[in-house]
Amino acid sequence: MKPRRRPLALLPAAACLCAALVGAPAAAGDGVSPVATYVDPFRVQAQGLRATGVYLHVSPALFALDVRSPGFQMWGWGLGAGRYWTMRKRLAIAFGGFFEHMLWVNPYENNWAGKTLNFLRFGPELRIGASNERVFAYGLVRLGLDLLVGTPQTSLARMFVAEVGVGLQGALGKQRRLLLGVEPAFDVSVPAPWLLFRARAFVGVRF
């Protein structure tokens, strides 16, 4: 009895199967499926403003004016630091603290408020919004202590400040660690009736 010959058509199929088995481990090691169409999400790290980390802001330019008396204008500077989280597809949250010093120089001849007023502010801050790797757009909330120094009645007046606003910041550089941003906002101090519109520009770094 003669042995049965295997069909020649099976040889190409067997060769393709062997090539797939050999190539599968190498592809899996790169986080790609054997057909090279799927990237393993557990092996991909978030970049830029989609990566959780720590931030530091320095604000060299801060301008504010009282909305009821636009002639009452102040200039200042500030610092901010905290932690940044990303969740789901676009949601981002940043929570930290801030310190600001704002100065008002009395342009009037009378001495009802002295020559200068210094506002020292500090407290927690919260930003909630949407981000991609390069841009973070958000709403801003701040609560804190507002110390007014330089009044003729007392050397130190204690107040509380609440602030709400919006902001936009971008991440620059190869690693997207340099931050540039701007934040317009309104704030009110009590019990003194300060009602300020303010604009804050800042530079920062993401760790």
TrEMBL record:
Keywords: Signal. This is DUF3575 domain-containing protein. Residues 1-28 form the signal peptide. It comes from the Bacteria. It comes from Nannocystis pusilla.
